Amino acid sequence: MLALLFILFAALAVGCALAVVAQRNPLYSAISLIGVFISLACLYVMLAAPFIAAVQVIVYAGAIMVLVVFVIMLLNVEHEDSRRTRVGFLLPAALVLAAVLIAEVAFILVSVDKASFPSSSSSDIGSTASIGSQLFTTYLLPFEITSILLLMAIVGAMTLARRARELSPNARVIPGAQLLAANIIDPSKALDDTTAIETDTVAEAAHLLGITSPRDPSKRD
Amino acid sequence: MQMEPQLSWYLALSAILFTIGVAGVIIRRNVIAMFMCIELMLNAVNLTFVSFASFFQDVTGQLFVFIVMTVAAAEAAVGLGIIIAIFRNRESLDVDDANILKL
Q: Engineered SS bond to A23: which of A28, A44, A175, B53, CB 3.0-4.6 Å?
């Protein structure tokens, strides 16, 4: 019975993982990734780790994937264009990866085959109480370091996603838009003239500045 | 006879998921898709941690999974911030377009 459940969820996880890689639309990849997370949470329940399973659903399938889907929607990503395929370069890499995977799985199946899980009917490993007591006694230092890491992540994400210039409250915010100071475009203007000139695309900004776009497709190697 | 799932089954599943993630990072050129493949690899490692925690009846592995999830959340926030910054400057999510540091 447990073996059937394992095969079901493992097949679901592998299928969804293949879909993550195979889909061209990032939104479909994200939804397939949620499928992987949910099936892994089911496997965690089978491994007597209900707390980790709940955290997996809440943090991964909830918070992180909402963030990813939000960014996909915000940036309005369309299909990945397939103009430049690098199959010649990828073929050896794929062969090496396949060899590594086969060696890995063969080693696991040969050397760890005798091991089966201890009967865990009475243990409280994986309960919220045991995880919490260990987290706040033995592993208190990693826990505190994690809090500093999260603070750094908050500050870093705000710094990265913020615009370089102050915006007026009624300014339009367009992803990919550029703001240029007026004296860059017209050097005759005074340096303390802080009027911003807004363009919608990088190409438009480059045209205003009188330079060719660095992303000119004709110059790509 | 009832078949019970064994430790090696979970480890093999974890290896397969990790390899799919590595292949995705190599194959895909969309930076958001590469990001999701990295999340897939982190989850494969988490599965290994939880199986060994259950096998050895030790809670330490599950605590590591907890920490890994926190790091993954921080990585998601910073990584998506970087993605937005790249898109704002380059108008593209193709990693081949972000080659200004390449010699």
A: A28
ipTM over 0.90: yes
Nearest CA in chain B to A144: B67
B89 vs A96, higher pLDDT: A96
B6 closest CB neighbour out of A14, A80, A116: A116
**pTM for the full model?**
0.76
Q: Angle at CA A139, nearest 5°, toward A150 and B57?
A: 120
Measured N-to-C along each axis, helices A26-46 and A2-22 cross at an angle, to the nearest 10 degrees, of 160
- The secondary element (H helix, E strand) that includes residue A198 is strand A196-199
Q: Quote the DSSP letter at residue B96.
A: G
User: What part of A 77-106 touches B (C-beta under 8 Å)?
Assistant: 77, 80, 84, 90, 93-94, 97, 100-101, 104-105
Which of B8, B36, B91 comes nearest A20 by C-beta?
B36
